[in-house]
Amino acid sequence: MDLPELRIRLPQWLLDQLGGAWEPLPSAEAQMRFVIALARENIRQGSGGPFAAAVFDPQGNLVAPGLNIVTSSRCSIMHAEMLALALAQQRLGSHDLSDGGRRHLTLVASAEPCAMCLGAIPWSGVARLVVGARDEDVRAIGFDEGAKPEHWSAALASRGIEVERDLLRAEAIAVLRAYSEAGGAIY
Amino acid sequence: MDLPELRIRLPQWLLDQLGGAWEPLPSAEAQMRFVIALARENIRQGSGGPFAAAVFDPQGNLVAPGLNIVTSSRCSIMHAEMLALALAQQRLGSHDLSDGGRRHLTLVASAEPCAMCLGAIPWSGVARLVVGARDEDVRAIGFDEGAKPEHWSAALASRGIEVERDLLRAEAIAVLRAYSEAGGAIY
Predict the structure, then answer these.
(1) What is the pTM for the complete model shown?
(2) Quick check: B87 and A147 CB within 8 A?
(3) How far apart are alpha carbons B23 and B8 in whole angstroms?
(4) How do the pLDDT tens digits run along chain A, 187 residues long?
(5) Could A86 and B6 be called an inter-chain contact, meaning their C-beta atoms sit closer than 8 Å?
(6) Do the chains contact at B96 and A187, CB–CB below 8 Å?
(7) Chain A residues near residue B161 by CB distance under 8 angstroms
(8) CA dihedral sign, ordered A13, A17, A20, A22
C-alpha cells in the first residue's frame, strides 16, 4: 500500500509576513495582540478557523507561530496550539521545549485550549500558557471544546505550568464573532 | 525568520513491511494483533515508544498505521493514535474521517489514549475505538497519561463513538513490560 507522509506547511501569507527580521515583543499583551492579529488574518485569508497561537521565549522572540488550519491541511489535529508547539519543537530540534527544565517558553493562544490541545500542553515542555477568549466564548459561536477535566488551569499549575487567562479577552472575542458573523465553517 | 515545515515520515521499516498487498483483517482481534506487533517492532527497531495504533475500515482494510515516534520525530504530539488519525485523513483527503457520517472507521490502539489523544478522537471522525492495555497498565511502567475526564469511555459513547476495551490486554501489557525492562526512555 502507498502511505503518505504528513507534511504541514504554514500558509504563504504568514511565511511572507514573518520573512523579515523579528522585533521582540517583551510583554504578554503585545504577544497576545500579535496572536489575535494572526487569528483575524487567518479568517481574512480563508486559511482556517478563528484561532491562532505562538510560542515565545522569555525575551519576546517568536519561536513559532500556529494557526488553525484544520480544513486547509485536511488534518483535524492541526489546531493553532498544536501547530505552534510542533513547529517550535522542529525549530529547536527536540520534543521537549523545556530542554530538561533549562528553557522557559510561553504558549500564547487567542482562546482557551480544547480538550486535545489541553492534553498536549504538558507533553510539550512549555512553562507558561497565556490565553485570551474563554472556553465559553468559543462555545458561544458553536465550536465544541470537548470533555475537559474540571479546574484544568489548576491541573496545569500543579504540573508547574503557569496559566494567565482573559488577556485581551474582548479583542479575542471580537475575532470569534467576526468569523461567526461571516458564516465561517464550524467543525 | 526561517520557519520550518512539519514533515513527519513513518519509519522505513514500517513502509517496507507494508509495501506489498494488504490482506484484510476482518476481526478486531486480528487488527489488535497487528497493532501490538507494530508496537513490539517499534521498540525492537528503536524508532519510538511501546505504542502503536491503526485506522481500519469496516472490511478490515488498513487505512493508516501509527507509531509513537515522539523522540525520533522530535515532536511531542506524535503519539501513535495522532499519527494514525492524521495519516488516515491525508490518505482520504479530509479532516473528517466520517465523511459527514457516511463512513465508519475504527481506531485500534495498543493502549488506552492519553489526555491529548482522547481529546483528538472526537475531532477526527472515527466511529469506534478499540484498545488493549489500560490506562493503569501504561502508568505502571512510568508513562504519564495526563488529566483525563472521569468516565471517558462513556463520554465518547455519548458522542456516538463506540469503545471496546481490554482486547488482548495481556499481550499489550507484555509489550509495555518488555520496553520497561529493556530500559526504554519514559517521557
Answers:
(1) 0.97
(2) no
(3) 26
(4) 888 899 999 999 999 999 988 999 999 999 999 999 999 999 999 999 999 999 999 999 999 999 999 999 999 999 999 999 999 999 999 999 999 999 999 999 999 999 999 999 999 999 999 999 999 999 999 999 999 988 999 999 999 999 999 999 999 999 999 999 988 888 8
(5) yes
(6) yes
(7) none
(8) negative
